[in-house]
Write a structure and sequence with these properties.
alpha/beta, Dihydrofolate Reductase, subunit A, eleven-stranded mixed beta sheet, 13 strands, about 30% helix
Length: about 325
């Protein structure tokens, strides 16, 4: 069994202050059962019921005050938090919060580009209390990792996240050959499914094959047509796999899901520093939304660690008058 790295956390030093809580949260029926240490830092964590036809999606990022998610000279995402010299403990709380959301989810969605910027990371829980709590409740020690790539050629197949079978690949039909050439483990194709209706037609087969191959071969989920993928089909397949909540850790795929009205919420932490210039924001390689067609959000909660570090949870809204 693979040994996952663990951090030593000072829960007292990381404890967050709740500044605002939307009453909508109290109506959410799912209260996440978590260890006392987690409740000390964050308090109650609630979710709506999962969708009937797809996985519920939540994204989690830290950004600068001016909305940048990485420095050009050091593009790994955690640096935006770590560079906050006014509140180092707030930076630790930011990373811990990512672990809390991983704890509450069934799958982590990551882009190939993120793996390139943050090589040899670990898609695990760095908190022993959180891991032990999952195991005690009959869950895997960590969520599965899903790596997304349009054509399979940009995936760093030698990365340590691929050292065991607790991962999946999502690519287009055209990308399957590149995945076959790059993977070190046995794999099998799920699809291809051009859209969610095609995936629905094969629901029973998807479920049966997933259980038959579990921890023996890597699922390669093929959606869309040609070199394009289909997010609706992907989230439906994940639901058939028994994965009710997905945590999105790719800025590009966050934008993709927003464009499809498929991102349910986003935890967007603010490290109070400025980056400016041509630094990367969300979906920087994709077309921007327009003034007449764009998503909105409602604030669900606001926490703070200090006047230099804040933690925002947004519920996405796609039925606003602008659309």
């Amino acid at each position: 069994m693979k040994n996952y790295p663990k951090n030593k956390w000072n829960y007292d030093a990381m404890t967050l202050t709740s500044l605002y809580r939307n009453s909508e949260l109290d109506a959410y029926p799912v209260s996440v059962d978590m260890p006392a240490s987690a409740r000390k830092v964050y308090g109650d964590l609630r979710f709506p019921e999962s969708h009937d036809d797809r996985a519920y999606t939540a994204a989690c990022f830290v950004a600068s005050v001016d909305g940048k998610v990485s420095f050009p000279d050091r593009p790994a995402g955690p640096v935006v938090a770590q560079a906050n010299s006014l509140d180092p403990e707030g930076a630790k709380a930011d990373f811990w919060l990512l672990n809390l959301l991983r704890f509450a989810c069934d799958v982590i969605i990551c882009g190939a580009g993120t793996l390139q910027k943050e090589p040899d990371g670990s898609a695990c829980l760095f908190d022993q209390d959180l891991e032990d709590h999952r195991v005690a409740h009959g869950m895997q020690r960590a969520p599965r990792l899903l790596v997304c790539s349009y054509d399979g050629t940009d995936i760093p197949y030698g990365d340590t996240v691929f050292s065991d079978l607790n991962y999946m690949i999502h690519t287009s039909p055209d990308g399957y050959d590149a995945v076959l050439r790059g993977l070190r483990h046995p794999c099998y194709a799920v699809g291809p499914f051009a859209d969610e209706s095609e995936a629905a037609e094969h629901r029973d087969r998807i479920i049966d094959e997933f259980h038959a191959h579990d921890q023996k071969a890597v699922p390669v989920i093929l959606t869309g047509r040609g070199s394009t993928t289909d997010a609706h089909a992907l989230l439906r397949v994940l639901k058939y796999f028994g994965m009710d909540r997905a945590l999105v850790e790719s800025p590009t795929y966050t934008h993709v899901l927003m464009r499809g009205g498929l991102l349910d919420e986003i935890a967007l932490n603010c490290s109070c520093l400025f980056i400016g210039g041509k630094a990367v924001g969300f979906g920087s390689t994709l077309p921007s939304f327009t003034a007449d067609n764009h998503p909105h959000s409602r604030m669900l909660s606001i926490h703070m660690h200090s006047p230099s570090f804040f933690y925002f949870r947004h519920r996405m809204v796609y039925d606003s008058p602008s659309q």
